[in-house]
Amino acid sequence: MMEYKVIEMDFSTLRHRGDIHSLFNRIFGFPKFYGNNWTAWAECMESMDDPDAGMTEIRVEPGQFLVLHIKGIAPFREKLREDYDCLLEFSALVNYN
Fold it and tell me: Residue 92 to residues 1, 31, 73, 95: CA-CA distances in angstroms?
């Protein structure tokens, strides 16, 4: 049986480029040296099953799936298309690795 950890996120308040990094940082507890860019985001997300990495406060067990339930994705896509595209691309990268 597959196990899921679901994280609720609301993108409807994101207005400016980079706001998404502040939101993820606040919810996931990225380290102080988080670079607020997509490469740094991927590094943090890839390490969620490694508690010794110290890259995020949220953990998933090996074999467990993380599901992002995102509200307000349509306005985010319209206002911040570049960040939207990066979220899709880097999520695919994290899931591939």
Answer: 23, 22, 17, 5
